[in-house]
Amino acid sequence: MATLQEVLQQTVREGELYEKLERGFVRCYACGHCCRIPDGQLGVCKVRYNEGGKLLVPWGYVASAQCDPIEKKPFYHAYPGALAYSFGMLGCDLHCGYCQNWVTSQALRDPSAVSPPLRVTPEELVREAVQHGAKVVVSTYNEPLITSEWAVAVFKEARAAGLATGYVSNGNGTPQVLEYLRPWVDLYKVDLKSFEDRHYRQLGGRMQPILETIRRLHEMGYWVEIVTLVVPGFNDSDDELKRLAEFLASVSPDIPWHVTAFHKDYKMTEPENTSARTLLRAARIGKAAGLRFVYAGNMPGRTGELENTYCPNCHELLVERVGFHVVDYRLTSTGSCPGCGTAIPGRWAADFQGQIADVPYLPGFRRFDRMRAVRR
Ligand code: SF4
């Protein structure tokens, strides 16, 4: 039986985000590493590789697919209550010790991460999404930037079916990949993990490409929301949170910032779980920096009003939530406050049609072929 790497190399095609260099090298532009790859070698992500002077990239499978409430992504200013049909491939360009999707993201690095791929076509995925009543299709679970050609193929089908599309990403992008995605991606969530370059280097990246990506995403008209997983002792100092929030406010005070609670996971089992008090402190810092929409996540019912959306002008309650559950929705059909008429930034449906699911569930597509591999 083949190794996982060998199995995945049976389901590839030539990439679009690269250039050919001299002596058979290629330069990949799918993520901020911009790997220069010699013939016969893999990029840092271990899923894109140079074969005979061509860059081959993942194609034709998913490692997981799930029906999620859009609040889980989290997007709070995009179609509240919608079902987000979410899929992911394998691999990541970073290696965060606290990754909550490590079974898919670290499958090529860590033999204990087992998530066998399922063969599938873009048409089949979108058909499933429509059957389940999804309004949005989202590439997530692994780092979507490194599998952008496949995501775009799925999103072209999704658009044809009238669905919106989104990325849940670490934001380690390049100008080339953002231009490539712009026609096909509506919503973009960036996980801004820290405001210290040395922390990013511990995770396998650099901070600057991520900050440039956030600025560029906003300028290019993607709908952007930012998440920071607040990890005690790693990124929770007042100073770091303040600099991070001030950076976001300098891009736009209308960018929603979600501060979410860490729980012990994967290789990071030392820090204590994040307390509600720490999230409240982070949220205060975000508001003091000028951000108009700050949310606390992963602690349903324990962070007061920080799960709800309020009008920044008259403070009227606009969307009330507990966890992923939308309790009340009061925006007008044009996405404005019903009290004072202030336009609320985001992507809003003309009317709220209820919530299909407020907990994730698996679509029943086990009919797809599972590709068998051994670990080596
Ligand atoms: S996606 Fe990133 S890590 Fe992977 S080959 Fe391309 S530049 Fe390198």
Write a concise synopsis of the structure shown:
This protein has 376 residues and is of the alpha/beta class.
Beta strand %: 15-25%
What is the makeup of the main sheet? 8 strands, mixed
- SSE string, helix = H, strand = E? HEEEEEEEEEHEHEHEHEHHEHEHEEEE
Widest sheet: strand ordering = 8-9-11-12-13-14-15-16
Mean pLDDT: 92
Strand runs, count? 19
Short descriptors:
single chain; alpha/beta; eight-stranded mixed sheet; three-stranded antiparallel sheet; 19 strands; globular; binds iron/sulfur cluster
Overview of the molecule:
This protein is α/β, with parallel strands linked by helices. Helices cover 23% and strands 21% of the residues. It has nine helices and 19 strands. The protein has helices spanning 4-8, 102-105, 122-131, 148-160, 175-181, 197-202, 207-220, 238-251, 276-288; strands spanning 12-14, 18-20, 26-28, 36-37, 49-51, 54-58, 61-62, 64-69, 83-88, 118-119, 136-139, 164-169, 187-191, 223-230, 257-261, 294-297, 309-310, 317-322, 325-329. The protein has an eight-stranded mixed beta sheet. Helix 3 (122-131) crosses helix 4 and helix 8 (238-251) packs across helix 9. The longest helix has 14 residues, at 207-220. The chain is globular and about 60 Å long. The N and C termini lie close together (11 Å). The mean pLDDT is 92. Bound molecules: iron/sulfur cluster. Iron/sulfur cluster binds at residues 28, 30-31, 33-35, 43-45, 48, 93, 146.
